[in-house]
């Protein structure tokens, strides 16, 4: 979130600095160019005044020496030319060599010989390598006898301009650095309540309804959001607690009357005769009472397990060590075979109520409902998820019925006469989902008669790095 905020702010700051810096950079370049132009103009004006006197008196030695000295000091050829363009005074070779590279020179010289002071040559930019030509007429009006011409290499001027631009760019970086330095802690302060709300939502998705957001930090809008979030969670937690309390209390309060009713019904057994209609009604009543007691037991167990909503890391090896021997005994009693294929060292997030209880329920379903010969327990890790599968080669469940099988109180039509409440898979799916995992139903092992596949329940839970 910090980076996304800076991605929005920094480009805006760059545009603002550029909007201010580019015109300032142009102004700096124009000022440097103007100073260079004025400096050259003063030089050629002085040389033109000296040349007028020297040409009129014929004493040109001193001016020739001064022009040569000027070229030696500054590397700028200065020449006094006559009206035909021939060099009268100055470093002639250096002047001619520089003049060949300047296409604007004839126009400037012609204007100067006509008695005008021409503008500097052409458009100029710091990255161009063209020279700077300035000319001044010698004499005035109709008495112009020649012109003084300078051809300046502006490498130093370019260097000064680029240096100033670099300084401006460095100064422009200071507010950007300051913006980033200030925006990072400010954005952390602004977004901290959002991060806390995100962390609280993650904890809630894992079943912890006691978590609350800090409503004392951050901007006023986010504090109000945190207060609303906490109020909502108070209402949700109260509603869930009342629901669980109702299920638990109702199951507990129904247990005693149901037990009394069963005792009353069973007390009638000595007064019944075998084979008559009363005996059949008695058997049906006892079976229904037993089914109701199993239902109440399941509801109470569900309420107890769902009241513990905290998932915690667990070693799969430790869970299996307390369960495998019991599973083998149960499968052996039922005439079935258990195969366990679990690699060692897997550590995963255990749902509330215990991973062992969930696997017990899945093994129990395989023994009671599938008529399987082989039950296989396997596990594998991929992509940060541990998948524990309980597969059998029994009857299985039709693909169209698998989604309904995870609903509470649903029983497959072929299992209506089998002992059970229809709550086991639904409760397991809820507990696994609360731990950030998933319980899915798939095809099991191939059936021995080759008519299809059995049933498989796969528990996928997050891997906990060792």
Number of strands: 11
> Percent helix among the residues?
55-70%
Structural class: alpha+beta
CATH architecture of the largest domain: 2-Layer Sandwich
Largest sheet: number of strands, sense, barrel closure: 5 strands, mixed
Low-confidence stretches: none
Mean pLDDT: 79
Shape: rod-shaped
Strands ordered across the widest β-sheet: 6-8-9-11-10
Summarize the topology.
Blueprint (H helix, E strand, L loop, with lengths): L1 H56 L3 H14 L3 E5 L4 E3 L2 H8 L5 H9 L18 E7 L7 E7 L2 H51 L14 H47 L10 H30 L5 E4 H6 L2 H10 L3 E5 L5 E4 L4 H15 L4 E9 L2 E8 L9 H4 L18 H11 L3 E9 L6 E10 L4
Helix pairs in contact: 1-5, 5-6, 6-7
Write structural notes for this entry.
It is a single chain. By secondary structure, the protein is an alpha+beta fold. The protein folds into 3 domains: 2-159, Beta-Lactamase, CATH 3.30.450; 206-309, Orthogonal Bundle (Helix Hairpins), CATH 1.10.287; 311-462, Heat Shock Protein 90 (2-Layer Sandwich). 56% of the residues lie in helices and 15% in strands. The protein has 12 helices and 11 strands. It has helices at 2-57, 61-74, 92-99, 105-113, 155-205, 220-266, 277-306, 316-321, 324-333, 355-369, 402-405, 424-434; strands at 78-82, 87-89, 132-138, 146-152, 312-315, 337-341, 347-350, 374-382, 385-392, 438-446, 453-462. It has a 5-stranded mixed sheet with strand order 6-8-9-11-10. Strand 3 and strand 4 (146-152) form a beta hairpin. Helix 1 (2-57) runs antiparallel to helix 5 (155-205). The longest helix is centred in the N-terminal third of the chain and has 56 residues, at 2-57. It is rod-shaped. The mean pLDDT is 79.
């Amino acid at each position: 979130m910090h980076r996304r905020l800076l991605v929005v702010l920094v480009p805006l700051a760059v545009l603002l600095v550029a909007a201010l810096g580019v015109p300032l950079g142009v102004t700096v370049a124009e000022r440097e160019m103007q100073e260079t132009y004025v400096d050259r103009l003063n030089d050629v004006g002085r040389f033109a005044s000296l040349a007028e006197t020297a040409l009129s008196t014929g004493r040109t030695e001193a001016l020739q020496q001064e022009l040569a000295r000027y070229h030696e000091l500054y590397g700028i050829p200065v020449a006094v030319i006559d009206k035909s363009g021939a060099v009268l005074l100055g470093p002639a070779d250096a002047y001619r060599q520089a003049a060949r590279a300047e296409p604007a020179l004839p126009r400037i010289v012609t204007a100067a010989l006509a008695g005008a002071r021409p503008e500097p040559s052409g458009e100029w930019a710091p990255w161009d390598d063209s020279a700077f030509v300035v000319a001044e007429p010698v004499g005035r009006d109709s008495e112009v006898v020649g012109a003084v011409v300078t051809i300046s290499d502006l490498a130093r001027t370019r260097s000064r301009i680029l240096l100033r631009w670099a300084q401006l760019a460095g100064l422009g970086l200071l507010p950007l650095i300051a913006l980033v330095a200030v925006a990072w802690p400010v954005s952390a302060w602004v977004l901290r309540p959002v991060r806390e709300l995100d962390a609280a939502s993650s904890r809630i998705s894992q079943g912890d309804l006691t978590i609350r957001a800090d409503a004392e930090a951050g901007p006023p809008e986010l504090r109000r959001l945190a207060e609303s979030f906490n109020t909502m969670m108070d209402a949700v937690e109260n509603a869930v607690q009342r629901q669980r309390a109702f299920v638990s209390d109702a199951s507990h309060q129904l247990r005693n009357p149901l037990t009394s009713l069963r005792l009353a019904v069973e007390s009638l057994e000595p007064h019944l005769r075998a084979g008559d209609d009363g005996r059949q009604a008695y058997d049906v009543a006892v079976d229904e009472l037993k089914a109701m007691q199993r239902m109440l037991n399941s509801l109470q167990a569900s309420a107890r397990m769902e009241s513990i909503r905290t998932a915690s890391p667990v070693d799969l090896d430790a869970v299996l060590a307390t369960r495998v021997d019991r599973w083998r005994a149960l499968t052996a009693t039922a005439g079935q075979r258990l195969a366990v294929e679990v690699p060692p060292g897997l550590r995963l997030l255990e749902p509330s109520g215990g991973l062992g209880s969930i696997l017990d329920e899945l093994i129990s379903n395989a023994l009671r409902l599938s008529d399987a010969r082989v039950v296989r327990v396997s596990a594998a890790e991929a992509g940060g998820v541990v998948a524990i599968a309980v597969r059998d080669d029994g009857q299985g469940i039709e693909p169209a019925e698998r989604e309904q099988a995870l609903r509470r109180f649903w029983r497959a039509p072929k299992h209506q006469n089998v002992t059970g409440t229809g709550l086991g898979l639904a409760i397991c799916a809820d507990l696994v989902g609360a731990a950030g995992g998933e319980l899915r139903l798939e095809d099991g092992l191939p059936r021995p008669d080759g008519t299809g596949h059995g049933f498989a329940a796969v528990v996928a839970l997050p891997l906990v790095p060792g």
